[in-house]
Amino acid sequence: MRVRTVVLVAGAALLAKRALRRRIDASPLWPMPALDVPVSGRGRQATVTRRVVVAARTEPAEGVVQLRLEGAGLPAWRPGAHIDLVLPSGTVRQYSLCGDPGESGVYTVATRLIEAGQGGRGGSREVHEQLHAGTEIEIRGPRNRFPLASAPSYVFVAGGIGITPVLPMVRAAEAAGADWRLLYCGRSRATMPYLDEVERLGAGGRTTVVAEDTDGRPGLGFLAELPAETEVYCCGPEGLMDAVGAAMPEGRLPRLERFSAARTKGGKPFEVELRRTGRTLAVAADQSVLSAVREAVPGVLHSCGQGFCGTCRQRVLEGEVDHRDELLTDAERADSMLICVSRCAGERLVLDL
User: Fold this and answer.
1) Is the pTM of this model over 0.90?
2) Residue 158 in contact with residue 185, Cβ under 8 Å?
3) In the predicted model, what is the mean pLDDT of residues 169-176?
4) Of 14, 119, 251, 329, which one has the fewest beta carbons inside 10 Å?
5) CATH hierarchy code of domain 270-351
6) Above pLDDT 70, what percent of the chain?
């Protein structure tokens, strides 16, 4: 009788889990309209440039600017997607979409001002100082390398401006009736965007807010005890994402969203032959291929410098590539590379340049 009872209980649990998954899949947000952009690729939408106007500009937290971008024919998107902003200077930066996927003709992004001494490269300052209501700007995308998978339960961990890709995920999980928890960390409550909505969605204990100035650093020990079916999503500073990965059960990894390349330089020196240019260049261990190439071909196209936008993509004729980008598909990596971040896995590369 005990064996029969255990079997019945296990069967009931399995049926409940399947029922929840059916509710998730039947939710208006699952599946979203199909996009012709691969999860991590350079599909047609990823390279098409569209013009939008800044319809509204607000400040959801100290040092954070939110832009509501409106335009005709904007493709549908799913939680986790981002777009490229082509800033007035020509600089390209990537920002997560944090609005409502069901609202057509509108994209919403937010960015925190990061000074040069804190690792900023000028993009956020340009957004804060030059993009105002009425400004026209070019965008590319959307592109999604951080998709929200259908699952019965989720844990979301967001640090500061890392809440932007996570917030649409939380809304989607709530709408689907999935079990979810959110750990939202920041320097102070005043600097944490969308805090009111996050706490309202998580009423009843599903949201934990940790402000470092009053609460110290967040505890991550609970991640080691998560059931196997729980999906973990994290976006925030590198230190937080590293800590989340270290706290996960052995053999499991969180799903991470990065907007800074984890490895752009470092490794051994090698040579790059520019076949059409007729020059062979030495690339130092602490130098990018792009930097070396620009000394010989100053006009080579480039933009983000982080392996996200694809502007610097070059065809590889010979050699093994150490791919370090966050954009190209496996098929695209077979014969090309992003020279701003990727390197040679051997001693020599030959580029069609």
Assistant:
1) no
2) yes
3) 95
4) 251
5) 3.10.20.30
6) 82
pLDDT digits (tens, 9 = 90+) for 206-224: 999 999 999 999 999 999 9
* Mean predicted confidence (pLDDT) in 83-92: 91
Q: Where are the beta strands (DSSP E) in the chain?
A: 49-61, 64-70, 82-86, 92-96, 106-112, 136-143, 153-159, 179-186, 207-211, 230-235, 255-257, 270-274, 279-283, 313-318, 321-322, 336-338, 343-344, 348-351
Plot region of 246 (φ>0 → left; ψ -120 to 50 → alpha; else → beta):
alpha
Instruction: Of 35-49, 80-94, 151-165, 266-280, give the range with the top mean pLDDT.
Output: 151-165
Calculate what percentage of the chain has a pLDDT beyond 90.
67
d(CA 107, CA 139): 10
Fold topology of 146-257: Rossmann fold (3.40.50)
User: What kind of fold does domain 44-142 have according to CATH?
Assistant: Elongation Factor Tu (Ef-tu); domain 3 (2.40.30)
Cβ 232 vs Cβ 180: under 8 Å: no
For residues 162 and 257, the answer to whether their CB atoms sit within 8 Å is: yes
